Amino acid sequence: MAEKTLITFIQNALSLSNTPLTIRREPSIEGDDHKVFFIDGHDNYILRVTKPRPGRGYSGSEMQRREIAIHDLIRSEYERRGLSSAMIPRSVASCILDDDKDGDETTSASLEVVLKGATLDDVPATSRTLTNLTTLLVILRSIPVSRLEERLGVKVPMLEYPELMQWRSDAVEAWRRLVRNDQLGGVNWGVPPETSLEEYIETKTAFMEEIRAFSLGNGKDDEIVLTHNDIKGEHILISHTDGSITGILDWADVGLGSPAIDIAGVLLTVGTTATIKVAREAGYGEKVILEGIMFGRCMCVTRLDDRLNGNDTQTPVPLLKQQLLVSLQD
């Protein structure tokens, strides 16, 4: 990808054809499916280049079109309720980078308005933060999913429903491996005196029977909603002054799935007590809340194990341990 191509795109988008520009890449805030560039002298904009992710099955241009369409849809839902939509990313121009094609694996660029604030990884949540998280879940739940692809003109993937029994089994095995390898040091996990460290994750996920009981007493099909699918502290920006959410970032994994997926994301961001409050106020019942807590705790364990004993070579270990700790706190 030629830097000159990106600069020309920015100049055309901002009507700066005669103005020299320089851009600088910021790998520290990138994901595995996008690159990020800041534009010197134009701090209100950011350039996001979407690249195909191996195994995803979508080109960069498809992923970008879906994100932009979802952003527009979510903003319209906020505005329809008389609420500010300023925390949702907004693209002012986009293009396919013709010089960076690999068959159908096209890469695309989007010039977006910068969203500012501190991440929830760095600043604690306030009551305003939790209210805003509740609103986000309400908005996502309110969007009709029937024929959504037809209405948006883009593909919206179906997300696999978490198989909680398998997730718990995998998490217990992963936790025991972390204990055996002495890889849980440096954190006070809050293990009570009567429980060994090796048994701790089993006690923190010992509510499968409660979930089954709710399932037997319900008889309804599990709900499918529009799902952000990557809620976590680094993707939530908040105000330093009152904790209100100023940015909800990285919608690349958006899809249709169980609300437990996003409840799990809230869990590893603000903890169990706050998550229960947020999910209940968003209108969710106890079954899906427990599913979200189970999924979130198991996911955090397996992610840490994958980082220390598996294929993940990039995610910071302190971040994964912090997310796991937050998810386990009652």
TrEMBL record:
| Stated name of the protein | Aminoglycoside phosphotransferase domain-containing protein
Q: What is the lineage of its organism?
A: Eukaryota, Fungi, Dikarya, Ascomycota, Pezizomycotina
Q: Classify the source by domain of life.
A: Eukaryota
Record organism: Penicilliopsis zonata CBS 506.65
Task: Identify the InterPro entries for this entry.
Answer: AGP_Transferase, Aminoglycoside_PTrfase, Kinase-like_dom_sf
Q: Which residues form a coiled coil?
A: none
Cross-referenced Pfam families? APH
UniProt domain Aminoglycoside phosphotransferase: residue ranges: 34-284
